[in-house]
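ingest -> validate -> predict -> emit
validate: passed (alphabet ok, no gaps, 321 aa)
predict: started
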Amino acid sequence: MALIQHKNIHISTALCYKNKLLLSFQSEPQLHLYQLSGLPYPHLSSFELKSHATCLDWGVKKDQILVCTETGIYVLKIDGNQIILINKTNIQGQKGVFSYLNDRIMTGDTEGNVKVLNSETFEEILSYKHQGTITDLDMSSEGELLASSSLDCTCQIYSIKNMKKVKNLEFAEHDDSVNLPIIGCKFSKSADSLFTVSSDVYSYITQWDTRELKPLATFRIHPAPVKFISISLDGFFMGIGTSDGWAKILNLRTMDFERNMKDFESSTVAISFTYDSRCVVACSADEIKNVFNTRSEGVFSKASKIWVIFIFCLWIYLRFR
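emit:
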């Protein structure tokens, strides 16, 4: 059975939010909220947009949702089963991300423009430009560095503190090869590493030291172009969607794949982790799959559950003896 029932499925982007799923369809200017339970997923509510969403991000600190569209940017909040508008602006941004503290928004568009905005007032803090379409954006957890990747074969690193460019990263910097378009860029949770994904016929991931901004290692990850990357909230896993329908889960601590499977006949357009990283929703344009990470439950988590059960049993014993 299909996970969702919708008359015109042509998925643009998706985002897991707690025990819910946000979906945008290219065929309509709406954002849809589903419950991540049951078959099919129950539809809870919708929110009207001027055009379909091209990017979604969850700002956990303020519990807000960033929605980027070709006609503007929205900041939303989910209250129960309803989607509530907090603020919006006509500033365009096909890509967008919250800062770690959710006090800033970083956006990028198809013209190569990158902007950093105040998340409450949308006042511009910093802007700069690439020579090609922006493919991905990220801000380091301590708020010092900005990263933007582009089809111009660069990943620009800016210092928000000094308000200037620190360095242009290129795939060919670590090898005597041609430069490749950089499809994605994500900082590690500790902000000591930056991961970039570059693609032509093959796709590669490069890990960079953020102190020296030098490449540490590069791995070939797929024999076809990557179309989408995301990172789990704990920073341990990267979701990788490819042009030939694979949905991969890469463990960023070991650089080994925990999941490496073909799921769709068309490109994987979105991969989103649930808050505990144990479940992943992967989407192609016309299909959704709930794929499960192989991440095992930690010893501390198991011990905590055993301790809670023990305390409960002890309370029952003392209460009714």
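The chain is about 5% helix and 55% strand.
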